[in-house]
Specification:
It comes from Flavobacterium sedimenticola. This protein has two helices and ten strands. By secondary structure, it is mostly beta strands. The strands form two sheets. Strands 1-4-5-6-7-8-9-10 form an eight-stranded antiparallel β-barrel. The chain has a two-stranded antiparallel sheet with strand order 2-3.
């Protein structure tokens, strides 16, 4: 019982926020970017301890609220959008700006009503297992002093 309470307390104390300073100073991987243009849906979000630990993704909502979310990536302009639409969560949609650098890092800014140049923070995730029909974004978060991977599985729409 004490273990569950401790895990619950720890889960409330962390967020998956990342700085984009070093990742934004590198060249763009246009081949990877072009491969993910179009519309995608997150089919799963997985991480160790997901039965007892809650993760707030992108400082927006519980990670499970991202399952079923729709994402649109436009590779030519590095713009797009995301929309949360899970029935058990608050609906949310926003424009985004993004790119993939040569190190395989996906750099994301959530714009809300702001312009990309005025948004000073964002998120850096690693691109993994990229195919024509699917890819993963992997975030590293700190859970009680241990780095843990949160894996967002994207599947192509149509």
């Amino acid at each position: 019982m004490k273990k569950i309470i401790l895990l619950s307390v720890v889960s409330v104390l962390f967020l998956s926020c990342k700085s984009t300073n070093s990742a934004t100073n590198t060249k763009v991987d246009s081949q990877s970017q072009t491969a993910i243009k179009g519309e995608w849906v997150i089919s799963s979000v997985n991480y160790p301890g997901s039965e007892v630990i809650k993760v707030t993704s992108f400082d927006l909502a519980d990670s499970k609220c991202f399952i079923g979310s729709k994402w649109k990536f436009v590779s030519m302009s590095n713009k797009g959008s995301m929309a949360l639409n899970s029935p058990n969560c608050t609906a949310y949609s926003t424009p985004i700006t993004w790119f993939i650098n040569k190190e395989g890092e996906f750099v994301l800014k959530i714009l809300d009503e702001a312009k990309a140049k005025t948004v000073k923070s964002g998120y850096v995730l690693r691109v993994a297992n990229q195919t024509e029909r699917s890819f993963q974004l992997v975030d590293q978060i700190n859970v009680a002093g241990k780095m843990t991977a949160v894996v967002y599985q994207f599947d192509k729409v149509n």
